[in-house]
Write a structure and sequence with these properties.
The protein is an alpha/beta fold. A 5-stranded parallel beta sheet has the order 2-1-3-4-5, sandwiched between helices. Helix 4 links the parallel strand 4 and strand 5. It is globular, with a radius of gyration of 16 Å. The two termini are 12 Å apart. Bound molecules: flavin mononucleotide.
Length: 183
């Protein structure tokens, strides 16, 4: 049986992040051959091109974790109608030095939760632009803009019954997307 290691990049550093909870809950819906690892991005320095020849240990760790993964899962909030700076910072780090972009070719899914009524649509669209440039094949459909309301998670941290079928379908399509690109 093929196994698939997925690097999960959560765009929020907040302790009680809804998006981190969503990332954790999604992992529980996946088939046994998929394992999900949330990569740390909160300890990365601010990207500075001067450091390209001497990347920080945290940057090397991030790049190694992305390199080892067969797929990527971005779970992000929207900040001021775009992706959070911490997420863009992580993406920039692992795209450099020039010619050593470790994101390239890794099949990816993008999902996000927001308390706002249009979800994370604009953040996801901006993220998709960046990932397209970095040569990341991102699943186009289905899209998932999760509106975080009461009951999104149950007491065990699973997706609540109202949203479960929608998220499960999204994940099933994501699993197929990864398998198609890794095969
Ligand atoms: C700086 C900042 C900007 C925000 N901008 C948006 C926004 O543009 N659209 C939106 O839907 N929510 C916005 N929010 C609200 C977030 O959706 C909400 O705080 C969410 O819980 C953040 O995700 P997290 O729980 O994973 O940290 C913003 C929050 C912050 C702190």
């Amino acid at each position: 049986m093929n196994t698939y290691q997925i690097a999960v990049i959560v765009g929020s550093l907040r302790k009680d992040s809804l998006n981190r909870q969503l990332a954790t809950a999604i992992a529980k819906l996946a088939p046994a051959e998929f394992t999900f690892k949330q990569v740390q991005i909160g300890d990365l320095p601010l990207y500075n091109q001067d450091d390209d020849a001497n990347q920080a240990e945290s940057v090397k760790r991030l790049k190694a974790e992305i390199t080892a993964a067969q797929g990527l899962l971005f779970v992000t909030p929207e900040y001021n109608r775009s992706m959070p700076g911490v997420l863009k910072n992580a993406i920039d780090h692992a795209s450099r030095p020039y010619g050593q972009n470790v994101w390239a070719g890794k099949p990816a899914g993008v999902i996000g939760a927001s308390i706002g009524s249009i979800g994370t649509a604009l953040a996801q669209q901006h993220l998709r632009n960046v990932l397209a440039y970095l040569d990341v094949p991102v699943m186009g459909q289905p899209e998932a803009f999760v509106h975080a309301r009461e009951g999104l998670f149950d007491e065990q941290g699973n997706i609540g019954p109202a949203s479960q079928p929608f998220v499960q379908n999204w994940l099933d399509q994501y699993v197929a997307w990864v398998k198609k690109h890794v095969a």
